Every structure is written in C-alpha cells, then in structure tokens.
C-alpha cells in the first residue's frame, strides 16, 4: 500500500498551517481527532499499526486508518470528517460500545480498543506503584490536584508531579510514551494553557535507575520524594 512519511520541520508548517487543515471535527469527534493527529501527523513511532500483518489485526480498520486518515493527513494536511466517521462506524461494530459514532468519549477508551482489540499491539507502558505488581497500559493520563504554583505548566512538570503524587515509576524505558493531559470540562479548566515539552526527561521516573547523589555526586543509594 502507498505510504507517506510523517511531516517534519518546515514541511510540517507548510502542509499543516492555515485554514481547512488538520482533521475536520463532526459530532463529538474532537477526542479522536486530537488523538489521531498527535499519534501520526509528525511522528512514525506508531506506524507499525498501519502495516501489521493480517490476521494479527483487523484489515478493514487498518486500511481505513492508513488510507483514509494518516496518508491524507501527511500528504495534504487535511482529513475529512466522513473519513473519521467511517472509522468510528467500524469501531462501533467491533467494540462493545454503540456510541462511538455520536458521543464524546475518553481518548484512553479509544486507544485501548484500537490498539489492543483491533490491531493487537502489546502494551506500550509498564508502571509500578509503591512496590506493588506492575501494570501494563497504552497511555498515561495525568491526574493531580490543583497546585497554585503551577499557572502555565509544561508537560515535564505535569508528568513529574503526577508520578510523584501517585507514587508511580516506569518499570522500563517505553518505546512510545502517550500522555493524556489533565481533563477539563466547559465549566472548569485546571490550566488555561500547557506548554509542550519538546523533550521529556524520564530519568527520575524510572524504577531502579542509577542516579547521581545531589550532595556528593556519587551514585545515589537513597531517594527522597
């Protein structure tokens, strides 16, 4: 099948900037539009989803994702709402939920369905909380209480504070780290803006990762939260 590489640097600006660009919204599709744009427009880290061999994946859903959404997005910078609706109809047929075509849903529910049940991808993240049994998942949703000193935070700050408050560690370096920002509704927004961190330092988030003592410079033996 025909494929197009992800957009980078000046090419991304040229193709994606302006009116009638991105993924056209329709009927509460914003959660899916934003997720698909983030996963495929400018990165190839999950392109294996588009070329998984049959019968490990659902060929019909894979074809819609690759040929009607990802390739047009990378080629023209625009995806019609009808293409996303085609995918939503297929997800409604494959999943246990009948509201994929009309209701707003949690992005995590969408990612779990398409990655695990339809395309058969192994979980991307392994997390451990407080020394308990490790958990596997496809994305990490930031949960945290409102903190007055964070007015316009960046992603690095939010991830670190969320991991700290939940006593979480990454068991291993993930091949892909999908992070869902704090949820908000029409009435309440935890942050008016969040600055994207172009690089993410996960050194302090890794379980049993050797780190430098802040006092003597040798390998640290104790960690203070």
From TrEMBL:
GO terms for biological process: protein deubiquitination. Its main location: cytoplasm. Keywords: Cytoplasm, Hydrolase, Microtubule. GO terms for molecular function: cysteine-type deubiquitinase activity. PROSITE patterns: USP_1. Pfam families: UCH. The keyword Cytoplasm applies. One of its GO terms (cellular component) is spindle. It comes from the Eukaryota. It is found in: Cytoplasm, Cytoskeleton, Spindle. This is CYLD hydrolase.
């Amino acid at each position: 099948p025909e494929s197009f590489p992800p957009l980078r640097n000046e090419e991304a600006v040229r193709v994606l900037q302006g009116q009638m660009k991105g993924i056209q919204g329709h009927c509460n599709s914003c959660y899916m539009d934003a997720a698909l744009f983030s996963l495929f427009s400018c990165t190839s880290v999950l392109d294996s989803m588009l070329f998984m061999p049959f019968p490990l994946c659902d060929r019909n859903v894979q074809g819609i994702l690759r040929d009607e959404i990802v390739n047009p997005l990378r080629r023209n910078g625009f995806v019609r709402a009808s293409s996303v609706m085609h995918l939503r109809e297929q997800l409604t047929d494959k999943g246990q939920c009948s509201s994929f075509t009309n209701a707003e849903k949690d992005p995590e529910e969408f990612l779990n369905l398409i990655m695990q049940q339809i395309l058969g991808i192994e979980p991307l993240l392994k997390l451990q909380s407080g020394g308990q049994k490790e958990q596997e998942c496809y994305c990490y949703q930031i949960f945290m209480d409102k903190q007055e000193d964070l007015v316009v935070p960046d992603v690095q700050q939010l991830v670190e504070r969320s991991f700290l408050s939940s006593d979480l560690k990454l068991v291993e370096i993930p091949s892909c780290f999908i992070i869902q920002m704090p949820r908000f509704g029409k009435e309440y927004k935890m942050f008016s803006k969040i600055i994207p961190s172009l690089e993410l330092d996960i050194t302090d988030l890794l379980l049993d990762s050797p780190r430098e003592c802040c006092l003597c410079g040798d390998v640290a033996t104790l960690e203070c939260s």
